[in-house]
Amino acid sequence: MSSIESVMTETRIFAPHEAFKQAATVSGIEAYENLCNLAEQDYTGFWADLANAEIDWHKPFTEILDESTPPFYRWFYDGELNASYNCLDRHLASRGDKTAIIFEADDGTSTHISYKALHQRVCRFANALKKQGVGLGDRVVIYLPMSVEAVVAMQACARIGAIHSVVFGGFSAKSLHERITDVGAKLVITADEGMRGGKAVALKSAVDESLTMGGCDAVEKVIVYRRTGGKTAWNESKDLWWHELEAVESDYCEPTWVNAEHPLFILYTSGSTGKPKGVQHSTAGYLLGAILSLKWVFDHKATDIFWCTADVGWITGHSYVAYGPLALGGTQVVFEGIPTYPDAGRFWQMIEKHKVSVFYTAPTAIRSLIKLGGNLPNNYDLSSLRLLGTVGEPINPEAWMWYHTVVGKERCPIADTWWQTETGSHMIAPLPGAIAAKPGSCTLPLPGIMADVVNEDGSAVSGTEGGLLVIKKPFPSLLRTIWNDPDRFQRTYFPNTLPGYYLAGDSAHRDADGYFWIMGRIDDVLNVSGHRLGTMEIESALVANPLVAEAAIVGKPHDIKGESIVAYVVLKGERPEGEAAKKIVADLRDWVAKEIGPIAKPDEIRFGDNLPKTRSGKIMRRLLRSLAKGEEITSDISTLDNPAILEQLKQPVS
Ligand code: 6R9
Q1: In the structure, what pLDDT confidence band is assigned to residue 234 with cuts at 50, 70 and 90?
Q2: Closest Cα to residue 476, out of 81, 142, 26?
Q3: What is the pLDDT of residues 569-618, one digit of tens each?
């Protein structure tokens, strides 16, 4: 693989403010380095100490790491615990009346629920699940809108040792069916409908439809949470109302103590092939990752009002809504709605209303809010904020700067957190009281995370060259396997070509300070005339242009260059046509040539009102690549949020 040094030229650097640093859990770079050194010197001892300190064990572990059958590692594997006990019961004596969840509904009404009240609801629902015959190791599919009930359902499964598999409410009946059958669910939990942006979204009917598709014989019951009261079909032999079950149960349910390695959940994620992978996480290792990352990266304080905008259907909503904040006894906002309803000021208005102190969202949300109302944050009092986070994709330096100045008022550190469904919790991210940020870089690995960039044979890259992002040692929160497919687990993440490293599937490079810069998925790296270019670098250059709101770059096979560069661009203003479009194409090509170099100039630029995105906000580059090649889209686009956009993006400007 030939490579060139990355052309990324970002040089701005933002050190933590003194006051933030003084108050931070990990304060100053030496404190961070000390933690890293501890992990270097005694790797298993480092993790064992943390697991003892952060988790309440029913039966303490004596064994730390089993490496006898790599890559099937086990951690703390003779210990016993319960995740729900760690998220709820252990707080009751000291902060039972503290607000655990501030729930804000789509219509703007909000309710507070205390730890005591949440514990009671989880216990009642756990008892109800037991009564339906759900027990240790049974799989339960959860297909719910963002709600307190979604958190209750997940926690209730954890309480009785059932393994939940949450399916994002935006997935189609077909995708839901695929997951229900693969995981072998015994029970499905859903709602009549969800509410998003003032519109009802049918959920129960999708469950009904998927259950008629065959292969779901294991599903005995469907529990339905009544959210809207909208009309739903009812199957007397299968369907049960949540509120009727909960009403008759008692307020306490003894937690089922499980082994540290007992699967807490299975969450499906897309791989490089069509079939989604059921990523299986452990109980103890996973929980430890969620707890530590909240402490280290989000500098969690008892007084914080934490808000992660992710849906519980994604890993971010698992670790930073359903488990992490509760495990720490924190107060968090759970939001049912969408960022643009009733208008694009919703996030900022909610930060003001609930006095949010730590806010965690995705670059795609940031970019779309810049497009819809870059000055809107100025209309609200955002002085409660002290820390901002991003996740899901690289953040373009210009979007980073906007987040920093307009939202954070140059006061709040930004934690750009690199991690994956598979890693369970943050892997590379700045500890905000210790590590200076550079816009667009996720900075340095968390203590104990042996991340590196290597060549395809596992050898070290030289200097700041790009390569494969790997993690060289197993760590507690890493996935344990792919449900039903251990071979795929081994092949995908621990390929023979690497000496036992976890292969993340991203490419990256490290700058002279050792900072990591994610260049995109392995398949997103372009090789243009022998030069390796990260799609993100070109996107960042485009987004830095004052006309551009968002951009996505894909490669298109080219006889001479290997690949040519196709840019899909969303302007801040109207989508241009005719001569106006030609003029902007020429200007943008010159712009990129000026920002990066002539090698990075897009060969083609196409304009759209938006980019094709999954419902979790990821740009669907696979579709963009097909469009670039002029192929008809025949593959499954059920996860696509805005299919109409594809028509606009078919045509190059001519
Ligand atoms: C948590 C989550 C994982 C993939 C990952 C990478 C991309 C996530 C990122 C980032 C650059 C960041 N990604 N965070 N890229 N900077 N801060 O998003 O999990 O949905 O499994 O996606 O997302 O490509 O490999 P998941």
Answers
A1: very high
A2: 81
A3: 999 999 999 999 999 999 999 999 888 777 789 999 999 999 998 877 88
User: Residues 649, 624: contact at Cβ < 8 Å?
Assistant: yes
Cβ–ligand 1 contact at 537 (below 6 Å)? no
Cβ neighbours of residue 530 closer than 8 Å, sequence gap 6 or more: 2, 4, 562
- CB burial of 482-497 (b: ≥16 within 10 Å; e: otherwise) equals bbebeebbbebbbeee
DSSP code of residue 287 = H
Question: Roughly how many angstroms between the first and final C-alpha of the chain, as a whole number?
Answer: 35
Q: Determine the Cα–Cα distance for residues 78 and 92; give it in Å rounded to an integer.
A: 27
Residue nearest to atom 6 of ligand 1 (CA): 393
Helix, strand, or coil (residue 538): helix
Give me the amino acid identity at 145. Answer: P
Whether 639 has a pLDDT exceeding 80, the answer reads: no
Whether residue 440 contacts residue 395, with contact meaning beta carbons closer than 8 Å, is answered with yes
User: What is the C-alpha to C-alpha distance for residues 176 and 180, in angstroms, rounded to an integer?
Assistant: 6
Nearest-CA neighbor of 158 among 225, 87, 108?
A: 87
CB 290 within 8 A of CB 322: no
Separation CA 166–CA 154 (nearest Å):
8
Report the C-alpha gap between 320 and 307 in whole angstroms. 9
Contacts of 302 (CB under 8 A, 6+ apart): 329, 330
User: What's the token pair of residue 29?
Assistant: 């770079």
Whole-number pLDDT of residue 8: 52
Task: Take residue 32 and report the two structure tokens written for it.
Answer: 């961070």
From ligand 1's centre to the CA of 586, what distance in Å? Answer: 32
Nearest CA to ligand 1 atom 19: 420
CA of 511 to the centre of ligand 1 (A): 20
3-state secondary structure of 465: strand
Rounded to whole angstroms, the Cα distance separating 222 from 234 reads: 10
Q: Parallel, antiparallel, or unpaired for β 110-114 and 99-104?
A: antiparallel
Q: Helix 115-131 to helix 148-160 angle, to the nearest 10 degrees?
A: 60
Q: Are 249 and 216 in contact (CB under 8 A)?
A: no
Contact 166, 196 (CB under 8 A): no
% of the chain exceeding 90 in pLDDT:
80
Q: Is 44 in the pocket of ligand 1 (CB under 6 A)?
A: no
Dihedral of CA atoms 356, 357, 363, 367 in degrees, nearest 10, equals 60
Is residue 511 within 8 Å of residue 441, measured between CB atoms? yes
Tell me, letter by letter, the H, E, C secondary structure of 240-267.
EEHHHHHHCCCCCCCCCCEECCCEEEEE
**Band of residue 271 on the pLDDT scale cut at 50, 70, 90:** low
CB of 315 sitting under 6 A from ligand 1: yes
Q: Is the CB of 518 under 6 A from ligand 1?
A: yes
Indicate whether 5 pLDDT > 50.
no
Ligand 1 near 521 CB (within 6 A): yes
pLDDT in tens, 522-568: 866 676 765 656 788 789 889 999 999 999 999 988 877 768 999 99
Q: Which of 85-94, 199-208, 623-632 has the lowest mean pLDDT?
A: 623-632
Report residue 575 CA to chain centroid gap: 30
Q: Is the CB of residue 524 less than 8 Å from the CB of residue 448? A: no
Structure tokens at 330: 């924190």
